[in-house]
Amino acid sequence: MAATVSCADCRTAIAQSQSFFGTDGSTLCARCHAMREAHAQVERGRAAAYEEAAAYRGAVGLVVQAVKRGQADDEATRHHADLAAIRAAGPRAAEPQPCHRCGVAVAPADIHYALDGQTLCRACSITYDAAAERKKIEGNLWFGLALGFSLSFVGVAVVHALGRPPGEKRGALVGAGVGAIFMLVALRVVGAMAR
Ligand SMILES: [Zn+2]
Ligand SMILES: [Zn+2]
């Protein structure tokens, strides 16, 4: 008889001959292996976009870089969420899973998913506020923007030091960049008036 192994991600029993290895050496079923590969592909795309953004130089380049990286982040987040949705739509784990919010055991057919992939029961999914959750994960772009603009790169350092959400970091960087351009323009104007 064929030896079976358990998939590290979904716990499904699979024939050893049909198992795959993850980059971390874990044993995976074909589906989970493809899923991990797809997530890795998204990250490679993000890395490529970052590299491309790094080609922009100067004060304006800094802003362009921040915007391009922000776009790449948004895109990666969307793709990861799409993959999570695809996974959720497919065959599910056979065992009930606890709701991340209220802890009640949820039958596989009734499992709902939060934005970050956490398991939710039906009742919790109804009261789940996706927009608020996204904001909590992403942070407030405008808060970061105001901080970066008013405190320049000190603002950027502050949001990083405080470990603020990615949206705020991005906002602070853009704010600081725009602030730097304003400063350059102001210096030119002052310089021209002093002449
Ligand atoms: Zn699996
Ligand atoms: Zn619940």
Record field, number of beta strands = 8
Placed side by side, the strands forming the largest sheet appear as 1-2
Distance between the termini: 91 Å
How many structural domains can be distinguished in the coordinates?
3
Unreliable runs, pLDDT <50, ≥5 residues? none
Can you walk through the features of this model?
It is a single chain. The chain is mainly α and 195 residues long. It folds into three domains: 1-90, no CATH class; 92-138, no CATH class; 139-195, no CATH class. The chain is built from seven helices and eight strands; from the N terminus they run ββββααββββααααα. The chain has a two-stranded antiparallel ribbon. A hairpin with a 5-residue loop joins β3 and β4. α2 (58-89) packs antiparallel against α7, α5 runs parallel beside α7 (166-194) and α6 packs antiparallel against α7. The longest helix has 32 residues, at 58-89. The protein is elongated. Bound molecules: zinc ion (2 copies). One zinc ion (ZN) is lined by residues 7, 9-10, 12, 28-29, 31-32.
